[in-house]
Amino acid sequence: MKGIVIMLLAALLTMQLFSQSIEGIILNGDTQEPVSHANISVKNSTMGTVSNDSGFFSIDVLDTGKISLRISCLGFETQEKEVTSCKNQKIRLRPVSVQLNKSIVVTASRNELLSFQTPDAVSVITPQELKINAPRSMADALSGVTGVWMQKTNHGGGSPFVRGLTGNQTLLLIDGIRLNNATFRYGPNQYFNTIDIFSVDHVEVIRGKGSVLYGSDALGGVINVLTRSPEYAPGKPRLGGRGKVKYMNKGMEESGLGELSFESKNIAVSGNVNYKNFGDIFAGGDLGYERPSGYDETGVTLKAKMRFHSNWQITSAYQYLIQNDVGRYDQVAQRGYLLYSFDPQIHRLAYAKIEHFSENPWLKKMKLTVSNQYSDETRKKQKENSATFTMENDVVKTNGLSLESYSAFSRIWEAVSGAEFYSDNVESGKTETNTQTGEKNTCRGLYPDNSSMLSFAAFTQHTLKLKKFHVNFGGRFNTFRIHSTDDEFGKVIIKPNSLVGNISLQYFTSPEQQFILSTHSAFRAPNINDISSFGLFDYGIEIPSIDLSPEKAFTIEGGYKKSSERFSMAVNAFSTRLKDQIERVEATYMGSEYIDGDRVYKKENIARSNISGIEFESGFKLNRQFSFVNNLTWLYGKNLEDDTPMRRIPPLNGKLALQYHKSAIFGEMEFLFAAKQDRLSGGDIDDHRIPKEGTPGWKVLNLKAGYLWKKFSVNGGLQNIFNQAYRTHGSGIDSYGRSFWSSLMVEF
């Protein structure tokens, strides 16, 4: 931290005045009215600004030749424009209601690209969608997204399934930094919900690909949550901020946010504090309240950017979130527990990113990222008719270091290369207290205390643009050292490694449409949870395993994308073959098949399976005000060893929505649906969260509306209008019944 402070002070001392400026105004292409808060940036540099209330912007530059600008704003299509250093630029943005294929994404290539230009299956939750929908949590934010199935074991959880895989088989990132750590378990977990929704700018989902650029766990794909950043401001420094409150009836939510920001020509800082009180969920039909399911949450976020000269920028951030008394309703309602909760659950992330831009084609952009994370999970449990109160605590401390570079070797050849290092240290313990006598017993936690996992990787990804053909290819080598020492099970050290690659071919039949053929491999290294977990899970008790190797996946995929002013669509068909899958098998402990009545299991690399699927999405602009969007996802998973269904495969599901946009008014009628899922694996049948005959299908109609007046925006919605009782497949709690929500936000 001291080094970062010294670097920031040095940057302030070396800051210089630029020699030229580009000035102009941003206009609405339909109404010709000024557009405020548009982001204007110079590509491959730190230079950028935001238009003021009159649409005016000014950027200082050193280059007096042609400058490539990127202009983006909520509700408008992103535009790139070449200009010269001069005054009186007039840039007209085209309003857009259908965002499909029109969003800028960074996750797919570790470089900013229009989503249409990537060969990947990409879903984006835009800032506009987050503002309009005002989701309660990250789990709610991804509901209805193409190719993503949101399972909720409890109200405070939310585990995204991407192409039928979740938990430690889908990689989660925050601002490009791994959230997955050495204790991420197989199957659903709650960690995605430890990201503060109030601090999120947008979310990018890369379906089925990501191991080359991001490493282990990306078997299903990558979800990257990008947080809000303060923006540089032209002219005099200014103070700003925003406040937000949200209410949901039946006591299901009361939340509020306060944020302040300081913006100047070369320094931008923002910080917010928020509190959320989530009451017990009120389910549909005659189910009523499901208790205990409510909890409370507090979040703090700080972020700062500073640029000096024209080619250096430092971004630093601090994120903290604590959740209290997060109940496991399913364990209390179905598993005989008097108490089962996460209390507290804490996630903390601090990082600094240093970026350098240059004219050297081999090193057009370089980025060094240093990060530190802290995850603290405390589980409190007590069974009915038992005097034993159990408290388990797991702390994971993660340090990360990554270096990446973007190169433009020629007009047709670009590349991203880099190296990454992550280290996880696990502290774990358990205390059992007799509530009648007060006697306490301290013993081994879920994991051996002071376990560790180290990861080092090098990667490179290249793009060749050959007229109508684009070829993308890359590779990654990853090596690990995983260590645990257990008094009962002994010392375990494993050193797995993996080599993966990808290649894709894009054929552009016109600037508006393309066909894609790709193949890629992926892997998941065994972690501390795999080799040393000793404790209860959904349908048994698990003992440690050793001599595990990485899970592997190989995917063949074909796709089609179209992007025009009024109509956009994307369709992908894929087949993924998984082998050396780590699965639980029946085992014995000290010669017994059971511990306190629970069946004993351990993990082995024994399974082979195949997942095939089709993902479709489209958007059609009916006229200036009305748009129609829809998506559909179908998956089929099969265990190849015994020709049985693969576990936890989501049913056929999709979304239909009619949207209305006019000036400051927005409205949407949304229809979400899922078919019945009765194609169950043995694990599904044993899972208390899934009915024996399968999960029934469901159909839900929601209404949303919003209005923007100057600095104020009001949004509201009516959920599950027909009050259907339903739950998503694999969830341990039912979804909302008929209810309404409203939010008010003011920006200044």
Automatic annotation (TrEMBL):
GO molecular function: siderophore uptake transmembrane transporter activity
Membrane protein topology class: Multi-pass membrane protein
Gene Ontology CC: cell outer membrane
Domain TonB-dependent receptor-like beta-barrel: residue ranges: 276-721
Domain named TonB-dependent receptor plug: residues: 117-222
Keywords: Cell outer membrane, Membrane, Receptor, Signal, TonB box, Transmembrane, Transmembrane beta strand, Transport
GO biological process: siderophore transmembrane transport
UniProt feature coiled coil, ranges: none
Localisation per UniProt entry: Cell outer membrane
Chief subcellular location: membrane
Keyword Membrane applies: yes
Family, as annotated: Belongs to the TonB-dependent receptor family.
Name of the molecule in the record: TonB-dependent receptor
